[in-house]
Amino acid sequence: MDEKDRLALGDRTRRSVLGDAHVDRSQQTRSDFNGEFVDFITRTAWGEIWTRPGLARRDRSLIVLAMMTALGRWEELKLHLKGALNNGVTPEEIKEVLLQAAVYAGVPAANTAFHLAAEVLREAGRI
Question: Are 23 and 81 in the same domain?
């Protein structure tokens, strides 16, 4: 697979997980300055890693939720909470990941993550 094919695969995967509306909005901020970075993320994160056969997308979503909580990357956590729902992750599973994160990443991080998760789940009509 060449870079062009990997970019197209990454775009399809990203849209499947995060939704067309998000990807379309992010493409509107594309510029000469950040365009290569956008392509890099699309090719590598979405076209190489998210498409690997070793883990299902829902499992990758669970891992990303834990990592974003541990790192305190709240904007990315919120985005990936929505993606996790698209990948079939249930609110109960999200709760379990955040409880696990509370033990290993700290209660303050999990507290913020629970707040953001509740917001996303309410918006999605899931709680």
Answer: no
